[in-house]
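Q: What changes when zinc ion is included in the input?
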Amino acid sequence: MDENNKKNQGIVENGYERIDKFDRKQTKELSELYKKILNKIDRDPNRDGLTKTPLRVAKSIQYLTHGYNINPDDIILSSMFEEDYQQMVLVKNIEIYSLCEHHMIPFFGKAHIAYIPDGYITGLSKIARVVDAYARRLQVQERLTVQIRDCIQNTLNPLGVAVVIEAMHLCIAMRGVQKQNSVATTSAFTGCFLKQQRTREEFIHLIGVMLH
Ligand SMILES: [Zn+2]
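A: The predicted holo structure follows.
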């Protein structure tokens, strides 16, 4: 099957392509490993409900980490338009689902992203796709924030980029500490968002997030 056909069979939902095709060898090897893990942690690993679990988990982990197969720069470089607009472009409340690299347990929340164009803009949905391309990897929230900022800065070369992420970490909520409602906020800025306090404050006011 050629690449285009494969692509056409992907399911497109809200502009995102759901990855429903899995590498066969990878899926087989991962299922065997997950079967071993199940045998270690469950007292009755052969019961009906668990028969297909190793295969399901092997597929789901590939989906949850499919960002490794995407080059985020390409998302923007393939969709850049010349435009004179020099006001803030803001995309708020982009949903984020990622896995913390220390525990491989989810963290999830929202990203707010702004940039001030300098000759070029990109499609608003492309910003969300860049977020997803980095989030669908093993991550820490701090690095995720900076990677998104750098990708937009290095491709569009705008006057400034601002990224704020608010996320809840299940590795904190579900494990020992059990601070179930704590949300971590991270931010990263370039250009005029760094140099001009007013621009930064306008962004922070628009997204309505408290930064410490
Ligand atoms: Zn963690």
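Observations recorded in class: Confidence is low (pLDDT under 50) at residues 1-16.
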